[in-house]
Design goal:
Number of helices of chain A: 7
Structural class of chain B: mainly alpha
Order of helices and strands of chain B: HHHHH
Number of helices of chain B: 5
Shape of chain B: elongated
Helix content of chain B: over 70%
Number of strands of chain A: 8
CATH superfamily of chain A: ABC-type transport auxiliary lipoprotein component
Distance between the termini of chain B: 80 Å
Order of helices and strands of chain A: HEEHEHHHHEEEEHE
Largest sheet of chain B: none
CATH topology of chain B: Serine Threonine Protein Phosphatase 5, Tetratricopeptide repeat
Number of domains of chain B: 1
Structural class of chain A: alpha/beta
Oligomer: heterodimer
CATH architecture of chain A: 3-Layer(aba) Sandwich
CATH topology of chain A: Rossmann fold
Number of strands of chain B: 0
Radius of gyration of chain A: 27 Å
Number of domains of chain A: 1
């Protein structure tokens, strides 16, 4: 037996031994995630409306109500109540406020164009703490679970180096892709919703959760605000639904011998 | 010299049954693990879980059995038990990249599930 043959045989034996020692089997797995909120007391849900602000290009209140109702209809066991979307910004401006809170910046025509940042939204906190208002609304719709909150959808830009792939042709005509770093200013949006879940029987908040998503586009892309809104909402919808219903997260794990 | 040889022989004689017993024990545990893998691949996770529980009972130093048990607990939504089993598997075999990777995936999901924000 030559030395080379002996080495090859040795390698083969070593590989077989390693393989035998580390037998593994990849297996698909669905991990169940329990809902964050116990909603067993409710059969119906009312997505009432949102205090919305930011860009004027999207009616974030209306779009969010539509989207959440549609998602809840298809992906939860709750019956979704179809009702007019409540213009909560206007409702809030008519309600008495806590003494130490700043008055909401609502324009003369009553629209919510005055809300530009998170600080502006704080002026509406009293609305969500007004148990009488939510209880009355709950009575109107036979005590459902009420979904409300705030939505901020604002334009956003950021400058910096971005890595992109560029096709390069060498002297022999061969093509290859190389990463290139370029400085650019990218524009996009930030979506920051806070979902508040209210017990329609008592008017008290049960749970709230804040999300934040952002997207940036290259200067060459001309993405409409509404498309960006849906792109960002798509990312956080699983988190929203996970509050109300159990979900299964698909993945894989490695079983070992 | 003769006495020394006799002493070594005696020790060997005493240890031999123990080694044989340990071999039998680990082979039993291995059988349980292999059976568990076969049934898990058919989707029978409860049976797999039972087998891997038996395997770690038989051989409490069997890292692979703890790894598989953790996966089965995870599949059943028993996150506390899954974490304990993963931690034990990592403790027994800290260099095993498969176990560490499984544990990382689990922690990612578990963090997401348990994330709560104040009102």
């Amino acid at each position: 037996m030559t030395a080379r043959a002996a080495v090859s045989l040795g390698n083969l034996v070593a590989a077989l031994l390693v393989g035998a020692c580390t037998s593994f089997y990849e297996i698909p797995i669905e991990t169940p995630i329990q809902p964050k909120l116990d909603i067993s007391a409710f059969q119906r849900v009312l997505v009432a409306g949102f205090v919305a602000g930011g860009t004027e290009e999207v009616d974030a209140n209306l779009e969010t109500v539509r989207l959440l109702r549609s998602q809840l209809r298809s992906r939860s066991d709750l019956r979704v109540i179809e009702a007019d979307v409540i213009p909560l910004t206007e409702v809030a401006s008519e309600q008495p406020k806590a003494q130490d809170s700043e008055p909401p910046r609502v324009l003369e025509n009553g629209t919510d164009k005055g809300i530009k940042d998170e600080k502006d939204l704080e002026a509406y906190d009293h609305l969500f703490a007004n148990a009488n208002f939510w209880k009355k609304l709950g009575e109107e719709y036979q005590n459902p679970l009420i979904v409300t909150g705030t939505i901020l959808f604002v334009p956003h830009s950021r400058s910096g180096f971005v890595q992109r792939d560029r096709e390069v042709v060498d002297a022999y005509g061969r093509r290859s892709v190389q990463p290139v770093r370029t400085y650019m200013e990218r524009k996009g949006y930030i979506l920051r919703p806070k979902f508040i879940f209210i017990d329609g029987r008592t008017g008290t908040p049960l749970y709230s959760e804040t999300f934040r998503e952002e997207v940036l586009y290259n200067p060459s892309q001309d993405t409409p605000a509404l498309s960006s809104y849906f792109e960002l909402m798509d990312r956080l919808i699983p988190g929203f639904l996970g509050t109300l219903s159990s979900q299964k997260i698909k993945g894989s794990r490695v079983l070992l011998k | 010299m003769r006495q020394a040889i006799a002493a070594v022989g005696l020790i060997a004689a005493l240890l031999a049954p123990q080694a044989a017993w340990a071999d039998t024990k680990s082979s039993e545990a291995r059988e349980q693990v292999e059976f568990g893998i076969r049934v898990a691949q058919k989707g029978l996770w409860k049976e797999a879980l039972y087998r891997w529980e038996k395997a770690v009972e038989i051989d409490p130093r069997y890292a692979a059995a703890y790894n598989n048990l953790a996966i089965a607990y995870e599949h059943e939504g028993l996150f506390d038990k899954a974490r304990q089993a993963y931690e034990k598997a990592v403790e027994l075999d800290p260099k095993n990249t498969y176990i560490r990777q499984n544990y990382e995936y689990f922690r990612e999901i578990n963090d997401r599930a348990s994330r709560r924000q104040p009102r």
